[in-house]
Design brief:
By secondary structure, this protein is an alpha+beta fold. The protein contains eleven helices and six strands. It is elongated and about 140 Å long. It starts with a helix and ends in a 6-residue tail after the last helix. The relative contact order is 0.15. Belongs to the outer membrane factor (OMF) (TC 1.B.17) family. Keywords: Coiled coil, Lipoprotein, Membrane, Palmitate, Transmembrane, Transmembrane beta strand.
């Protein structure tokens, strides 16, 4: 009968708390993300996607593969992200432990002196535990037992917090994949930059040799009074200008090598590479697949999606703060004033069981503000998710257009280089036969050098576009 009354009173109290709190929960409408993407990047609707290739299959240069392997093992930024993943994993254990009962052991010892002329002191003075053995003074206090605390997760507040931690752990794992794709792309782009610089330096040295030979011819012609000193000086200036360019390229080579070494987390050392392979490299044929595949292939999109899911759970956790919480505490053990009586059963047994309902009633501004902030953060993650998806689509679209335009540009520049290379010999022959001015020779050599530089730059941009489209499609992390 007594227990039934306790249950009835507890139910009445719970009803009153629910009524007074649930009626005052602010009404906030969560924002829903837009996941719609165009059906295709153009007229093609082929679902074959280059992003499905593993990076070892996509990059077939053994020197580049070795560099990427080293970077994935040693790169500091990647190792920092790995520790962030470990932190997120530990946060899951923290959240899981919050909704499980907490059980501990407690042991204690002390003493207490009660004034004799008080009701407790008077009772202790006249109390005999056994004949002829009054209670000691001061009174020792010895205790040993177990205790437990548990918050009953009625509204799934603690469980949702644990689920939110899991989503953030998954987001951090996708962050690792995103760093991997960026790292691989950066190593590859710098490697191709290095090959391009090496080839530009080789062309520059060939051009210096051609210009030096032309300078000797001009000097001989001056001795024969066929040209003036002005022509000799102009040819000398051209040779000196070309020679100065090689030091600029050598500096860029040093910086690019150091950048690669930094990505590989090592101090400066030569970068193994095959310069001759650069001119024979043909950019891979890229198959972009469908835009909807970005949602599953791109690590940054999946990370934003997990962060969005975590933010939605945080809103539910914040909303649950408006409802009452039920806590249960219990203890069981022994307590006595003497070691001789500590384990006397049942006289020294101590146990307790209590339940507590706590709900906000007055001054709920902090809870309301926390709930509003959680909802605002959820709205932020929606906008961020949509921004990441939109950016991913444009990255792919831009790189596809770039690949197409660079292919046409490279064909035209190849024809330009061929024409200007032939014109060098023609201009030299005409100059020696006094049918062309020396300025025509100088301009032809300069234009030929610039066109060959531009051809190498275009080839490098083609290779970079191949790297970037592979990254934009979400390839490299698998």
């Amino acid at each position: 009968m007594f227990r039934n009354r306790i249950i009835q009173y507890a139910g009445l109290i719970l009803f009153c708390l629910l009524y007074t709190t649930a009626c005052k929960v602010p009404s906030l409408v969560p924002k829903t993300e837009n996941k719609k993407l165009p059906g295709s990047y153009g007229s093609s609707e082929d679902s074959t996607n280059t992003a499905q290739l593993k990076w070892r299959e996509f990059y077939n240069d053994p020197n580049l593969v070795a560099l990427i392997d080293t970077a994935l093992k040693n790169n500091q930024e990647l190792n920092v992200v790995l520790q962030e993943i470990e932190i997120s994993r530990n946060e899951i254990s923290v959240r899981r432990g919050e909704y499980l009962p907490f059980v501990g052991l407690r042991a204690g010892a002390g003493f207490d002196k009660v004034p004799r002329y008080t009701n407790i002191g008077a009772m202790e003075a006249t109390t005999d535990i056994k004949p002829g053995k009054p209670m000691p003074e001061p009174v020792p206090d010895l205790g040993l037992g177990a205790y437990a605390r548990w918050e009953v997760d009625i509204w799934h507040k603690l469980r949702n917090a644990q689920k939110s931690a899991v989503k953030r752990y998954l987001a951090s794992s996708e962050g690792r994949n995103f760093v991997i794709t960026n790292l691989i792309a950066e190593v590859a782009n710098n490697y191709f930059e290095l090959l391009a610089l090496d080839n530009q330096l080789a062309i520059l040295r060939q051009n210096i040799e051609i210009q030096t030979n032309a300078l000797e011819i001009v000097r001989l012609q001056k001795q024969a009074t066929r040209v003036t000193e002005l022509a000799v000086r102009r040819f000398e200036a051209q040779v000196l200008n070309t020679r100065s360019l090689q030091y600029d390229i050598q500096q860029r080579i040093t910086e690019t090598e150091n950048r690669i070494n930094f990505l590989l987390a090592r101090y400066p050392q030569p970068i193994a590479r095959n310069d001759d392979a650069f001119n024979t490299m043909i950019p891979k044929t890229i198959q972009a697949g469908l835009p909807s595949q970005l949602l599953t292939n791109r690590p940054d999109i999946r990370r934003a999606e997990f962060e969005l899911a975590a933010a939605k759970l945080d809103v539910q956790v914040a909303r649950a703060q408006f409802y009452p919480s039920l806590g249960i505490s219990a203890s069981l053990g022994y307590r006595a004033f003497s070691p001789a009586y500590l384990f006397s059963t049942p006289e020294s047994i101590l146990y307790s069981l209590a339940g507590e309902l706590v709900g906000p009633l007055v001054n709920r501004r902090a809870i309301t503000a926390t709930y509003a902030n959680a909802n605002a953060r959820q709205t932020q993650t929606v906008y961020n998710y949509e921004r990441v998806v939109l950016n991913a689509y444009f990255e792919v679209a831009n790189q596809l257009a770039k690949i197409n335009n660079l292919e046409r540009s490279y064909d035209l520049k190849s024809q330009e280089v061929q024409a200007l290379t032939q014109s060098i010999g023609i201009s030299n022959d005409l100059f020696q036969s006094t049918r062309a001015d020396y300025m025509e020779v100088l301009l032809t050599q300069r234009d030929a050098l610039e066109s060959r530089f531009e051809l190498i730059e275009t080839k490098k941009q083609q290779l970079n576009a191949m790297v970037n489209i592979y990254q934009a499609l979400g390839g490299g992390w698998n």
